[in-house]
Prior knowledge:
Elements: E1 18-22, H1 29-46, E2 50-53, H2 72-86, E3 90-93, H3 97-104, E4 109-112, H4 120-128, E5 132-136, H5 146-155, E6 161-165, E7 168-169, E8 175-176, H6 181-186, E9 190-194, E10 200-201, E11 210-211, H7 216-225, E12 230-236, E13 250-251, H8 255-270
Parallel strand pairs: 1-2, 1-12, 2-3, 3-4, 4-5, 5-6, 6-9, 9-12, 12-13
Antiparallel strand pairs: 7-8, 10-11
Amino acid sequence: MDISLIPKIKHTESNNFFLLAGPCAIESEEMAMRIAEKILTITDKLEIPYVFKGSFKKANRSRIDSFTGIGDEKALKILKKVSKTFNVPTVTDIHEVSDAYLAAQYVDVLQIPAFLVRQTDLVVAAAKTGKVVNLKKGQFMSAESMQHAVQKVLDSGNNKVMITDRGTMFGYQDMIVDFRGIPTMRQYATTVLDVTHSLQQPNQSSGVTGGRPDMIETIARAGIVNNVDGLFIETHFDPANAKSDGANMLHLDHLESLLSNLVAIRKVVNGL
């Protein structure tokens, strides 16, 4: 997929990777606007094509008392305001067929969560909105098997599809990234590496997912070296108090230095 098909996306001629980044979940308008403005300043400076990411709700939670959202339409309206205010495309994940039509009225990219990527009705519903569809690779799936998820989108009459790798389960409580999968998946669709979710440590006895944010730059650098088309990074100005996935998010203060290093690496790779 040509990323210029994503509405409002800028810097598509820069020959850089593109970036999907933002908080795990929309917690408030103030936090969303603050994070979006900071990331946009950095990506404009570095000429990185950018899509603001924020989940309007979190349906897949370890415990029933975990944060799920501030209200579906309230969060979606915040995503729309971010897009309008900063002239930037937005992406959110959907969990049910009814979410596809609802979210499509507010955002530019619909994301299918990794646990749900084999749910045909959900994938088809997202495709039929005509929006860009981002398919998260299931932690339980091979790179080769993602061709079938892509084909479901194409067979639904939508060629705006990309794949995001978010790691593979390693035992019960860890994730690994198999970088051999990147060239495989790039045969099927534009491929993104989800850096932060790949560093999750799920299934903790506390019911709260752990993570290894200290390894974010390591994984991100390896993705760029291996020609991934885009990166997915969740970031927050206060990860310790984030309402979802704080354990593996990047502190917003560290984003510019990370992206600067990655842009430098991409220039070297482009010259090979």
